[in-house]
Structures are given as C-alpha cells and as structure tokens.
Design a protein that fits this description.
Layout: E1 59-61, E2 66-71, H1 84-98, H2 102-111, H3 117-127, E3 128-135, E4 141-148, E5 150-154, E6 163-166, E7 172-176, E8 187-194, E9 197-200, E10 206-209, E11 219-225, E12 228-231, H4 235-239, E13 249-253, H5 256-265, E14 267-271, E15 277-285, H6 293-300, H7 310-319, H8 324-328, E16 335-339, E17 361-363, E18 374-380, E19 387-396, E20 406-413, H9 415-421, E21 425-435
Parallel strand pairs: 4-20, 5-14, 7-9, 17-19
Antiparallel strand pairs: 1-2, 2-3, 3-21, 4-21, 5-13, 6-13, 7-11, 8-9, 8-10, 11-12, 14-15, 15-16, 17-20, 18-19, 18-21
Length: 442
C-alpha cells in the first residue's frame, strides 16, 4: 500500500494488481479447547486492565453499521496452532509507536519480556479480548495481498538504468484543508508554510479553487502558477518529462513497468549491479485517483479481463513496447518516494511508522480497526487454496482499503512475495484484539 498508498499511503490495494481474480473461501472452524492462563506472566497495571471486563458475547456498536462482538479465543479458527512468537515479534514493532499511548503502555511493557511461543500465546489470551468484526450485519469481507518489490537499477543513470525515481518535486505544494473545507468547492486563500506545505489562512497571499482538485484525503496537492494553486502533473505528463529539473532523482530503474508496479505498492528496493540495495518508501502523491490499467487493457481487447494479472500485464507490455506509454499513461496517479534507513532485511515502513513484517503485518481501514492492534484473519491461501488463519498486526493503511472487514495482507519483499500477493483476492473474516477493558472504536 504501503496508499499513508503508502506504505503509509499504499497507493492502491495490491490486490488490484489482479482484477477480479475470484476465489472460494474455506477455513477450518473446528473449535479448540481453551488453555488455562499462565500464572507467571508479568503483572499488568490495573488501570489498563480493570477487574471488571466486558462480558463474553457483549456487542459494541461502531460507526457506519460496524459491530464488534466479544468472543472467546476458542472461536478463532486454528487458534492453538498459531506461530505466536512471530505475531508477538511483529506486535513489538507496533509498540515502538503504541507505547506512547496510555492504554497500550502496560501490554507493550509486558511484551518486551516474553520470548517463547507458549508464553506469547498466553500473553495474548490473558491481556487481550477478542472482538468479532462485522459491518452492516455481514461477517464476511475481502482480503487482498501486497508486497515490497525489488527492482534492478542503479543510483545513477546508465545505459540500462534509465527511468528516474523521483522524490517530492521542488514545486509541489500540499495544502492541508481544515474540516470545514473538506466538502467546499469554492476558492480559499492560503500561505506557503514550508517546503512543499501550505495552510489555509484568511487573506493569504495565494489562492486555490477547490473544485479543480481531487480530494481523496484531507489535503489538495498542486503547484503554484503565479499566486494560484493548480492541480499537479499527471503520470502521463510526468512520463513525458514534466519533472525534468523539478525534482530530486533518488535512483534509476531498469524497467518502466516494474517501476509502475512499485508505485502501486508504494515502496520498494532498488538492487544495484554491485549488490547494494537502495530502500525507498512513500513520501507523497499527486492525489489523482488510481485508474486500473488492467481494466483499460481488457476494454481495449489487449488482454482478457480474467488474465489481467501483474505477470500477464508485464509480459504483454514486454511484447508490445509500442503500447507502453499509452497503457501506463491511463493511470494518472503518481507516487513520490523518500530514502529509507535501516538494515537490508528490515521491512518497509507502514502507516504506523514502524517496519512491517512479512506474513505478520497487514493494512486496514483505521476508521474501524485500531492501527497497531493484533487482528486475527481467517481467509484462503492464494496458492494452496487451503485455510490461511493467522494472528497478524494492523500496521498499515491504504487508500483502497475501505471497510471494517477489509485487510491487505503483507507478504514480504521480492519476486516470490509479489507472485503470491498478485493472486490474493478472497473472502475473509476478522477479529480484533484489544487490551482488556479497552473498547473498539466508536
């Protein structure tokens, strides 16, 4: 995603790499017996874990028709067979951010002292409550997959590495809109407040007519022409050279189609000829909506709709380079990147501002699922078609991840992760785990 289609944005759910890849849903619902709590786990603060807990079966009502029902852990399919150590390690990453919040401080402190799988299992059972998530009376939702691509390229332009990967352009302006202007279509005044940022003020030196801009976030994005803010360049314009000498170039990719899909993921790694990795993460976007090139190709008769997978799109464009600019230009959305620090084996940074963990992290809609919280996901494995029931951590968001029962599953980085992520589009069920005494979002 990543499209904040990061990985903070996560430009678009990576499941959109496969258009309409339908799959049946099947998962084990065999109940498991409850295990008694381990008595020697560290004690928790009573202010965070009150003695009066929410009764089993209680229903909490959230926004937009969302309900959360407290259930026993035995209701979670294959709960006893989980790799709890892997889930706990990913949760510890969440705590890098969550420990700043009062309601998470105790569980984060306790998590740091646990290292083995058995204690990890009892940690989740003892200090968390499981909430079954439904929206508009429906338990079933959708699960897609995403990954961090690895592209061949270099840190300077060469005969092979010819396609620039841009940072935020020098003339790019992100204007944050106060709540009262989110639906407004008239003109507003603003001042530039810093490099690439602006704020609405009365009698500002600059103006913008909001009806001209896409507003899929709390900001409008554009460039200044005199004292007027106008929409930023589209992908087609940028591919045609609109950013020449206007933006820093962070690296160069060998393949423009691979780079296009890195934009969709919102993050990636560039492997140089000498074996180094340049790690890049989402910085901002031009704010145009994503348009599916797969659907466009199907409508034009280039590929059957059922065959518009990422792999098939890449193969088609490799065989038909004369259609490359036409096809890629159909998606006006464009991502700007920033360099990432950290070791080569560390995952990309998600919306929680912590590293993601392959197969233990996921993107959710933070309006309904608490960012950083453990979630139990029941869905279908894209390759084996067997049950994929797993305790993962909600550490990312995406502009296409909308709804309470909606998860984008992070598969890791590289080609293998990309192949499996591109296949995932299945029915799924979600349970949210919250510290005892903490209610789901209203």
């Amino acid at each position: 995603m990543m499209m904040n289609i990061s990985f903070r944005f996560k430009a678009l759910v990576s499941g959109s790499l496969v258009l309409m890849l339908a799959g049946c849903f099947s998962h084990s619902t065999k109940p498991v017996s409850k295990v008694s709590k381990t008595p020697n786990l560290p004690s928790a603060s009573t202010s965070v874990f009150p003695s009066t807990s929410v009764a089993m079966g209680s229903v909490h009502y959230g926004k937009d028709g969302t309900t959360y029902r407290r259930v026993a852990f035995s209701a979670l399919p294959q709960w006893q067979q989980q790799n709890f150590s892997g889930s706990l390690n990913a949760f510890k990453n969440s705590c890098l951010s969550l420990r700043k919040q009062t309601q998470w401080q105790s569980v984060c402190q306790i998590a740091q002292s646990i290292n083995d799988n058995h204690q990890a299992k009892n940690f989740f059972e003892q200090y968390f409550s499981a909430w079954e998530v439904a929206q508009n009376g429906k338990l079933a939702g959708m699960v897609t997959g995403y990954y961090e691509p690895v592209l061949q390229g270099d840190d300077h332009q060469t005969a092979r590495a010819r396609f620039p990967i841009y940072g935020i352009p020098d003339d790019f302006v992100s204007l944050k809109l106060p709540e009262q202007y989110r639906q407004y279509s008239g003109s507003i005044a603003f001042n530039v407040t810093g490099k690439n940022t602006a704020s609405v003020v009365n009698n500002g030196a600059y103006s913008a007519t909001l009806s001209q801009f896409q507003r899929n976030s709390g900001s409008v994005k554009g460039r200044l022409v005199g004292t007027r803010l106008v929409p930023y360049y589209t992908r087609d314009q940028i591919n045609g050279g609109a950013l020449n000498n206007r933006a820093p170039i962070l690296a160069y990719a060998n393949d423009p189609v691979e780079l296009f899909f890195m934009h969709i993921q919102g993050s990636g790694r560039i492997q140089t000829p000498d074996g180094r990795y340049i790690r890049l993460g989402f910085a901002d976007k031009n704010n145009y909506p994503y348009v599916s090139i797969g659907k466009y190709m199907a409508d034009k008769g280039y590929l059957p709709l059922a065959q518009t997978s990422m792999q098939n799109i890449k193969a088609y464009l490799a065989q038909n380079p004369h259609r490359l600019a036409e096809v890629l230009g159909q998606n006006p959305s464009y991502i700007f990147f920033q360099p990432l620090t950290g070791s080569a084996d560390q995952g990309p940074i998600g919306a929680l501002n912590v590293p993601l963990t392959g197969e233990f992290s996921g993107a959710v809609d933070k309006r309904y699922i608490t960012l950083g919280a453990p979630i139990f996901l029941a869905t279908t494995h894209p390759d084996t078609r067997k049950a994929l029931n797993k305790l993962i951590i909600a550490q990312d968001t995406g502009s296409a991840i909308k709804g309470a029962v909606r998860v984008d599953y992070f598969w890791g980085y590289g080609d293998a992760a990309g192949k499996i992520a591109g296949k995932q589009k299945d029915t799924g069920y979600v349970w949210q785990l919250l510290p005892n005494g903490i209610l789901p979002q209203s």
